[in-house]
Known about the structure:
CATH class of chain A: Mainly Alpha
Number of domains of chain A: 1
Strand content of chain A: under 5%
Number of strands of chain B: 2
Helix content of chain A: 55-70%
Oligomer: heterodimer
Order of helices and strands of chain A: HHH
Largest interface: A-B, 39 and 43 residues
Number of strands of chain A: 0
Distance between the termini of chain B: 23 Å
Number of helices of chain A: 3
Helix content of chain B: over 70%
Amino acid sequence: xxxxxxxxxxxxxxxxxxxxLRRSLVKLIIGLIIIGNGANLLIFLxxxxxxxxxxxxxxxxxxxxxxxxxxVPQALILTAIVISFGLQSFAIILIKRxxxxxxxxxxxxxxxxxxxx
Amino acid sequence: MTQQFLLYPLLWQLFLSIVLMFxxxxxxxxxxxxxxxxxxxxxxSVALFYEVWQNGTLVVQAASWKAPFGISFVGDMLAATxxxxxxxxxxxVSSYSAASLIPARLRFGYFSIFHFLILGLTGAFLTxxxxxxxxxxxxxxxxxxxxITLGGEKAQIEGAVKYFTLxxxxxxxxxxxxxxxxxxxxxxNMADLAILIPQIENRGLVEVAAILFLVAFGIKSAVFPLYFxxxxxxxxxxxxxxxIFGGLLTKVGVYALIRxxxxxxxxxVLLDQILMVIAxxxxxxxxxxxxxxxxxxxxxxxxxxxxxxxxxAGLAMFTELAIAGAVFYLIHDIVVKTNLFMISGLxxxxxxSNRFKELGGIYKEYPKLSLMMIIxxxxxxxxxxxxxxxxxxxxxxxSFDTQSYFILAAVIFASFITLVVVAKLWAEVFWKxxxxxxxxxxxxxxxxxxxxxxxxxxLPILMLTGVSLYLGFGAENxxxxxxxxxxxxxxxxxxxxxxxxxx
Lengths: 117, 503
């Protein structure tokens, strides 16, 4: 399972980077979304995957006797997902606006503000 | 309960931005709340600074969860100083933007977002937890995205696309680094990590994590191979916004670099060498970039990059004196860069342009204002006894001590090139006889502004110039402060014991 997830994370990072290097704005955003998901998966993976062991201490003891699943990575991923969701929705509005204003989807043509020196 | 004092500057900014939302359509009320609120914010930060200066580091554990389980907020000398400078820059820019921005821009919650930005900066300086730092960084960038696109002009949108992409990528790299580090150490608390990281056996992965942090903060602080988003975007929003960006956003990246590489990833030869190369190339490429630009704000954008190099150089040499130089430079740079972008806005108001070929003759029209504007520029170059001079002495002595002569050469080269750039700027903008250009219609020139508005624009510049002058003439005090900060940074036990008292 960990092996599969590791491969998956790598594929997501690679695909995201590849999409980011394309010239189209839409592909750029898709790339950012994919690479963001890769990062979330990586946190999940590096928190060590433990099956069926909730991090709850039984009432009669004061510490973990058995192995337990680390709850912190899940809290981190939740936070990261919420944040990247906000950023992605901003990004989508931004590219829509950029398309309306600049009238192109091509990043190479978004250089009208660069002045001759 | 003096410990709780640490959170007041933070909570105050949050309170302000929420209150400002209730006055959404009433710009006049927003202006007053923002300026008065920022002034109170300065008061709170001064009190925090005084408290930390007198009684040492303040630590607050969120919801009383003991470190390393909860989130810690740590106000050591470095954090308190930067919070103070942030609030001072915030006050200046708040007053400046009230006068210089058009109402159409202010109508969409500008001030509220502005205070969210200051909130994010304050939080980033005060937090003692790396994931919490990530969250503060996100608050900073999301507010900066809104500020940079507010108004939606073509140039702004084009700049914003580049700014957004690179900053979003930096956040993802930061998150990746946190994931790797958490997998290795199993903790997120900076003090706890400072103890755990030296014990990790897999040194290769620790270095990978360190490099990932370096790249993430490198993009944010615009160092050599990663700075291209900065000159492509910083000249597009109005100067008031560019002022707060130029003064503080790149510096928060530098702060993170200093914190991480002095506390957690300390003994790493490879990193020191990488930092050294980065510092030299940043100094040279930023300086050369500034030489060829013909737009006031683009020149200043490249000078930001160039001067980031001084701080990285200090961090790379990593001796007591070098870090003190870097910290002093950080203090000086926040004040002076905020001021420079406000000055570029003033030039824009006077002449209606920021391009060299459409400028000229300001000295003849406004001799007193021009003299006021030359002081920050001279501090930028580091003309003794102004503020840029003192940290450079520390850096140069440190580079002799560590025999890093390439850094020495780069520091001198960058100072010289800054001098050339400022001289060129002065000749083109202030001395040259202006060509006749048609006046713009529907543009509020400085001459036609009411006296109150003029004052609202000039006073912030005057205030920051005053702070600059104090940093220069009161260099003894600032040097003492820098040395105290450095001794806190170099002796990591100090930070660790403050956060984890039972360790």
